[in-house]
């Protein structure tokens, strides 16, 4: 028996995507871990199942590379929207259900703009700011992003007791803004390593930057995997109309054989 899969990446954040509308995929932790393994499997930061939904175009089910179903993945949402267009479910606009609610996405060539849900203003939590953009994030401002050991520093806070109720936290290291541009590197929980880009992470960093530096409407984000843009509206108690935009590209497809 084999599983047909498609590999996508959004600014270097890479995913195995499977059309599971017939519900044939065995949802076991071990299988997902093996498929995502970069030495013994296909290799990916996470795995996404596209499934049927009675009210919207499709449902997105997301697993981190540790094999556990996880919270919202921004770059994964952009990639699965591109995949839905590739297989003919949608055209330029996709509306889909994720673990945190309903999202819309616009697909133009290989650029996908994903609408995220409204987000409360960040809260000061040492050594940075906490905000939930569909997944829990800690944003720490650093001046030495090119030389920092993200894995070492990220692990210090990923499992900190402060974030126990959230199941731990993703850790984003962010530069101070230059104009409306920031640079972000992210340690992702569930991957337990730095990823080249994290969609909800760069969104978190952008919103915290807006909160602290008074930048309104949009922020550009450079990551090791490429550039993203976050647009938003800020009012007295929350951010709304949040949109994450960047490239989402098909890489290859194949068959994964089950032993």
UniProtKB/TrEMBL annotation:
Localization terms from the record = Cytoplasm
Membrane-spanning intervals of the chain = none
Give the reaction(s) catalysed: (2S,6S)-2,6-diaminopimelate = meso-2,6-diaminopimelate
Query: Which catalytic residues are annotated?
Result: 73, 198
Describe the protein's quaternary organization and the partners it interacts with: Homodimer.
Q: Which GO terms describe its molecular function?
A: diaminopimelate epimerase activity
Its taxonomic placement starts with: Bacteria, Pseudomonadati, Bacteroidota, Flavobacteriia, Flavobacteriales
Instruction: Provide the protein name.
Output: Diaminopimelate epimerase
């Amino acid at each position: 028996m084999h599983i047909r899969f498609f590999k996508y990446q959004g600014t270097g954040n890479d995913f195995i995507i499977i059309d599971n509308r017939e519900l044939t995929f065995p949802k076991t932790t071990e299988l997902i871990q093996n498929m995502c393994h970069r030495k013994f499997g296909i290799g990916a930061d996470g795995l996404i199942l596209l499934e049927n939904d009675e009210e919207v175009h499709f449902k997105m089910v997301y697993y981190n590379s540790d094999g556990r179903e996880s919270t919202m993945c921004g770059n994964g949402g952009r990639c699965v929207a591109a995949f839905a267009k590739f297989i003919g479910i949608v055209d330029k606009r996709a509306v889909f259900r994720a673990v945190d609610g309903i999202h819309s996405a616009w697909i133009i060539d290989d650029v996908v703009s994903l609408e995220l849900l409204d987000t409360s203003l960040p809260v000061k939590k040492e050594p940075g700011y906490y905000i939930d953009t569909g997944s829990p994030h800690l944003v720490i401002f650093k001046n030495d992003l090119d030389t920092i050991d993200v894995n070492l520093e990220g692990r210090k806070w990923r499992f900190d007791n402060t974030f126990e109720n959230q199941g731990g936290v993703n850790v984003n290291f962010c530069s101070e803004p230059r104009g409306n541009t920031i640079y972000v590197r992210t340690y992702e929980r569930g991957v337990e390593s730095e990823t080249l880009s994290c969609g909800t992470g760069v969104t978190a960093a952008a919103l915290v930057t807006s909160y602290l530096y008074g930048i309104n409407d949009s922020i550009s984000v450079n990551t090791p995997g490429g550039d993203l843009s976050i647009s938003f509206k800020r009012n007295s108690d929350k951010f709304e109309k949040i949109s994450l935009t960047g490239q989402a590209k098909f890489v290859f497809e194949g068959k994964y054989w089950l032993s």
